[in-house]
Specification:
- The chain is mostly helical.
- It has one domain.
- About 85% of the residues lie in helices and about 0% in strands.
- The longest helix has about 110 residues.
Length: about 170
């Protein structure tokens, strides 16, 4: 203890308790000894607390490092899972789009096929009609066509054949 602190302490004891102590008094020595022990104990406690704080800080840093590593691992797994799910969705959408395009192409092909078949049939009918018309123009109508003149001998042959035919039917 310093001189000023000792004098202040002695005057405070005199005020409170009503008696006076000298700086040589053994009670003052005990107070000084007590103060020294308290200072030493306080210093040791502060050192231990500082060491404990350092250990806690070190442990906290290790825990933080582990936590960050764990969180990073979890985030990577989540991102990987999300990426896989997105890829599945993209593949499904791609397949659906392909099916839709194929259905549209098929429908357009069928529609085009129907149109071309119709055009072909109409064209064939027109060609047949034109062929009959051209034939009628070139050779005349069937009513206009006369059988060639037959000789009397040919007429007899045909008549005989008709009679034979008629007899065979009657039998």
């Amino acid at each position: 203890m310093s001189q000023i602190e000792t004098k202040e302490l002695l005057s405070e004891i005199a005020k409170r308790h009503g008696f006076r102590l000298d700086s040589d008094d053994p009670a003052i020595a005990i107070v000084s000894l007590n103060q020294l022990v308290l200072e030493k104990s306080t210093q040791e406690l502060c050192d231990r607390v500082g060491t404990a704080i350092g250990n806690i800080d070190s442990t906290a840093k290790k825990a933080e490092t582990r936590a960050v590593a764990y969180i990073a691992q979890e985030v990577k797994q989540c991102v990987s899972t999300i990426r896989a799910e997105l890829q599945k969705d993209i593949d499904a959408a791609r397949l659906k789009a392909r099916e839709t395009v194929e259905e549209l192409n098929s429908a357009h092909r069928e529609e085009a096929m129907e149109k071309w078949v119709t055009v072909g049939i109409i064209g064939a009918v027109i060609l047949i009609a034109l062929a009959f018309w051209a034939g009628a123009l070139a050779f005349g109508s069937p009513q206009d066509m006369k059988s060639p003149p037959r000789s009397p001998k040919t007429k007899q042959v045909f008549a005989c054949m008709a009679v034979r035919e008629a007899r065979s039917w009657l039998r």
